[in-house]
Amino acid sequence: MTTSIRRKPTSTMPVLTVILAIIMIWYVGAINLNSPQIIDRYEKKGIDWSFSQLATDSWNMKRAVLPSPHQILLELKTTIIDKNVTSKRSLIYHAGITLSSTLLGFALGAGLGISLAVGIVYVETLDKSLMPWIITSQTIPILALAPMVIVVFGAMGISGLLPKALISMYLCFFPVAVGMVKGLRSPQPMLVDLLNTYSASKWQVFWRLRLPSAVPFLFASLKVAIALSLVGAIVAELPTGGQAGLGARLLSGSYYGQTNLIWASLIAAAVMSASLVSILGLIERRVCYRLAGGQEISNEL
Amino acid sequence: MNLTSASTATNTVVEVKDVYLDFPTKDGVVKALSNVDLSINAGEFVSFIGPSGCGKTTLMRVLADLETPTSGSVLVNGMSPTEARKQRAYGYVFQAPALLPWRTVEDNVLLPLEIMGYGKDQRQQLAQEYLQLVNLSGFEAKYPWQLSGGMQQRVSIARALSVEPQLLFMDEPFGALDEITRDHLNDQLLRLWQQTKKTVVFVTHSIPEAVFLSSRIVVMSPRPGRIIDIIDCNLPPDRTLDIRESPEFLAIAQRVRAGLAAGHSYDD
């Protein structure tokens, strides 16, 4: 805990500086990208314009190429605070739908990844036969695969949460399987020998040695997996034709040129992703602290 | 060199005959053990001594069924090492404490008892008893990282003793410790051996340690790993560390040193 006390005063200033710089670049970029259309408009109407007027108009343009931060904040306010949560125009409603498929896909993917890892570590034929397939599976672009999965499941009458969660699972299981295999194989040979001298069964070795040793590796993988799971959920929402979810909001935003909506959805997705990873990070800290016997550990994210 | 003079059919614990062990490596075959014959009787304290690479640890790992010899026969308690291991015939203390960091001192000692299916009350009682024996009462709730190296190694000794094996394998258990701690633990181990009458097989590369503790010293030499001398070493049972200054101690130490020198080729 001492680390976090020491960390805060040193990190607040740099973080604020970077955020400030990004916002400044953003406003400059908004002028750059939006001004050609504005100038066109001025010229059509024959208006004399100054630079300050151009800047103000670029920053408040409707359907801007790059909306400025305060426009996005306003969009977030109207779609989060001003709309009822059950409304189809509420960003919270859509984020909730994406979150549920992210979490289900993450749970399925983590379960599949862990099971595969246990199989690979304990069954020699699986070790040789499974890994090439697992790696091959990840070379197929998810953008190509997602519509097929949605269409095939739709033809079988299954739509909504499950097909989306399966696409998340497909992205999730890979880092979990790879990390968990490494983790389950991480105990020192001496500790494995030790349990052999007790003539311990495979499962006793698993529960008492391999699984606790794998936990730090597992958490590193889970953090990657949950971020991928959200990507999977959003990609899976694109081919559904814009029914619900952050992916659907992105799609309808681009259909109708509502860039504010696109950016607001993107920010919602980023905040969700960062929160999920942080929650896992907090759990990781607590679990790893216990696994180290209460010794202070320094594996910051 | 008479290797079997003291052995009788009834109390031989370890019987090694004509054992060879080759490790295939990238640079060709390493002859870890070559033509090893040895028998160890109940209640003996036998040390394997020799330079690194002489196969002393490998020989002990063969006895414990952690390595399989290429040829030859090995009997532990009259059965194959695998059977002996499955019957949990021995305790093994490694070079490092090998404690699980997420378990307290007591839970580490409980580990083999849990695996071997001892009842809960008996587990607690044995753990208490053996932690007391290694002078670690009061440290039950500590975690390994809170203890010094010497204390950690004592926990691992208590853990090996807790299942009350009649045979104890110790692979350079004090090798990583400082001289003062090592002396202290040598003294404790000697008392422990005398109290419990266990058979101890001990690997070391320290001549004073081997002479002080052992009833017999097996001198080994590398390339190929083989036994070159077996020295009887029956110092008085009530010896203390002071005996290391005595002429009989120095005479045995001298013979061990001569054996090591004879077996060691300085060509490479």
List the keywords.
heterodimer, A: 301 residues, mainly alpha, MetI-like fold, 2 domains, 11 helices, 79% helix, B: 268 residues, alpha/beta, three-stranded antiparallel beta sheet, 8 helices, 9 strands, 35% helix, 25% strand, globular
Q: How does this model look, in words?
A:
- The complex is a heterodimer of chains A (about 300) and B (about 270).
- In chain A, helix 1 packs across helix 2 (about 50-60), helix 9 (about 200-235) runs antiparallel to helix 11 and helix 10 packs antiparallel against helix 11 (about 260-290).
- Chain A folds into 2 domains: about 1-65; about 90-290, MetI-like (MetI-like fold).
- Chain A has 11 helices and no strands.
- With about 300 residues, chain A is mainly α.
- Chain A is elongated, with a radius of gyration of 25 Å.
- The two termini of chain A are about 15 Å apart.
- By secondary structure, chain B is of the alpha/beta class.
- Chain B is built from 8 helices and 9 strands.
- Chain B has 2 domains: about 1-90 and about 165-270, 3-Layer(aba) Sandwich (Rossmann fold); about 100-165, no CATH class.
- In chain B, strands 5-6-7-3-8-9 form a 6-stranded mixed β-sheet, with helices on both faces.
- Chains A and B meet through helix 8 and helix 9 of A and strand 5 and helix 3 of B.
Write the layout of secondary structure elements.
The complex is a heterodimer of chains A (301) and B (268).
Chain A: H1 2-45, H2 51-59, H3 69-81, H4 91-122, H5 124-137, H6 142-155, H7 161-184, H8 189-197, H9 202-237, H10 246-255, H11 259-291
Chain B: E1 12-25, E2 28-41, E3 45-49, H1 56-63, E4 71-76, H2 81-86, E5 90-93, H3 105-115, H4 120-133, H5 149-162, E6 167-171, H6 179-196, E7 199-204, H7 207-213, E8 216-221, E9 226-232, H8 247-263
Parallel strand pairs in B: 3-7, 3-8, 5-6, 6-7
Antiparallel strand pairs in B: 1-2, 1-4, 8-9
